TrEMBL record:
Belongs to the EamA transporter family. The keyword Chaperone does not apply. It is a multi-pass membrane protein. InterPro entries: EamA_dom (IPR000620), EmrE-like (IPR037185), RarD (IPR004626). It is found in: Cell membrane. SUPFAM superfamilies: Multidrug resistance efflux transporter EmrE. It comes from Aphanomyces astaci (Crayfish plague agent). This is Protein RarD. The keyword Transmembrane applies. Its main location: membrane.
Length: 334
């Protein structure tokens, strides 16, 4: 097993068990957990930037007007998704969280076609159709529209739109993103604490430590994911990304005993087949891209991967080969 696969599996497994972490904070309102997540992510990320010796390059590259607006948008969309994710996990909707995570790759394709005017490949059409059928079956079995899953995947789609043009490395981007949100989240936390509504330092030490750890739980899987992307083929990353919703699915059914039925299972089966088709299509596109590269034929590249720090997914719209660096600017080929 290659080091890249080890990094990738570790990252996606960590993303998958994040709900367990949030479940341990079910006595804390979702909004407060999200506030603490941004509040602690920023100083912890900046500490990592300092340790990596990237402070000077971060300040030089990060603070432009366009970057500020771009990462403010992505930060707000991520913040909204974080609140919804935490609320869903602690309110018994983990299966819907899993459903939304399974839909992420398909959603990225739909966003690419609908808003970015990208072309849809034949097997991507099949994958989208199968996923749509699966969601429909799940909705019928559920008795109502799975709005949590749909809102989460829409939120990830919006986040990806912002990050499609993001010029910074994932580490620097996360630092700027959390830094923009930091003063607002810190102020919100202070206000809640001053009004006696906060939970930090008012209860168990375990709760305080878990709140501080939300930043670490954000940073570690993202860095593992980036490390894996640098040395692992795209189609392998695509296949491994299904670990996250699969783990969430197992947790929802086997550990937290959320309501489940054969009809819901049928809906998930359509999603799993959809993901298999999507993975095969990514593999074929990857091999075609390599063949064209060896022949000296230029192939279109996307700007960058979009790392989804909520569910462990990444933008996989075109199946082409891309390069990554943790501390250097992403290679962008026009």
């Amino acid at each position: 097993m290659s080091l890249g696969v080890v990094f990738g599996i570790s990252a996606f497994c960590l993303f998958g068990i994040v709900p367990v972490y949030y479940k341990s904070l079910d006595n804390v309102p979702a909004v407060q957990i999200a506030l603490h997540r941004f509040t602690w992510t920023f100083p912890e990320t900046m500490l990592l930037v300092l340790v990596c010796g990237q402070t000077k390059s971060f300040y030089k590259q990060a603070f432009t007007k366009s970057n500020f607006l771009l990462y403010a948008g992505s930060g707000m969309s991520m913040g909204a998704s974080t609140v919804l994710l935490i609320w869903a996990v602690n309110s018994g909707y983990l299966l819907e969280v899993s459903l939304g995570a399974f839909l992420n790759p398909v959603t990225m394709v739909v966003v690419g076609v609908g808003l970015l005017k990208e072309k849809l490949r034949r097997w991507q059409v099949v994958s989208v159709a199968l996923a749509t059928i699966g969601v429909g079956i799940f909705a019928v079995a559920y008795g109502k529209f799975p709005w949590v899953a749909i809102l989460l995947t829409i939120g990830d789609g919006i986040y990806s739109l912002f990050k499609k043009k993001a010029p910074l490395t994932p580490l620097h981007g996360l630092a700027l993103e959390s830094g923009i949100m930091f003063p607002f989240c810190l102020a919100g936390t202070i206000i809640l604490e001053s009004q006696g509504l906060g939970v930090f330092s008012h209860g168990l030490l375990q709760t305080d430590l878990l709140l501080v750890g939300t930043g670490i739980m954000t940073i570690i899987p993202v860095l593992l994911l980036v490390a894996a992307m640098q040395i692992t083929p795209l189609y392998v990353m695509g296949l491994m990304s299904n670990l996250t919703p699969t783990i969430q699915f197992i947790l929802g059914v086997a550990v937290y005993h959320e309501p489940f039925s054969m009809t819901r299972l049928t809906g998930f089966l359509f999603l799993w087949v959809s993901m298999a088709v999507f993975g095969l299509d990514s593999y074929w596109a990857y091999k075609e891209s390599l063949a064209d590269k060896h022949k000296g034929i230029a192939t279109p590249h996307s700007d960058e991967y979009t790392v989804d720090v909520e569910n462990g997914g990444f933008d996989n719209m075109d199946g082409k080969v891309r390069t990554f660096s943790l501390v250097e600017s992403p290679a962008i080929t026009k």
